[in-house]
Design brief:
The protein is an all-alpha fold. It has one domain: SMc04008-like (SMc04008-like fold). The protein has six helices and no strands. The termini are far apart.
């Protein structure tokens, strides 16, 4: 079976929704953990989402994109789920960004 463009777009969109759901299910995984392991985090996804919308002439601010990715306003997610980064996490991040 050959995949057409519409099928590809729908599969990619469904995969993105599953990624967001997976991240939502695993709130214990901190952004710094994602950055240290995969060089991207929820904030990166938000920035990519916003940038792609803009390439299509759709204006969405960063906070709105974050709300899509986090499933709630970022400030709410941060107060409920974000933990203070450990010294080890910060050290690993500084090594990976240098």
């Amino acid at each position: 079976m050959t995949m057409n463009e519409q099928d590809r777009l729908e599969i990619e969109a469904a995969t993105f929704r599953k990624l967001l759901n997976h991240l939502d299910t695993h709130k214990e995984v901190q952004n710094i953990d994602l950055m240290n392991l995969a060089s991207f985090c929820r904030n990166c996804l938000s920035k990519w989402y916003r940038a792609e919308a803009q390439t299509r002439g759709i204006e969405i601010d960063y906070e709105s994109a974050r709300e899509i990715v986090y499933g709630m306003p970022y400030s709410e997610w941060k107060s409920k789920y974000q933990q203070e980064a450990t010294a080890e996490q910060l050290e690993q991040l500084s090594k990976s960004t240098n």
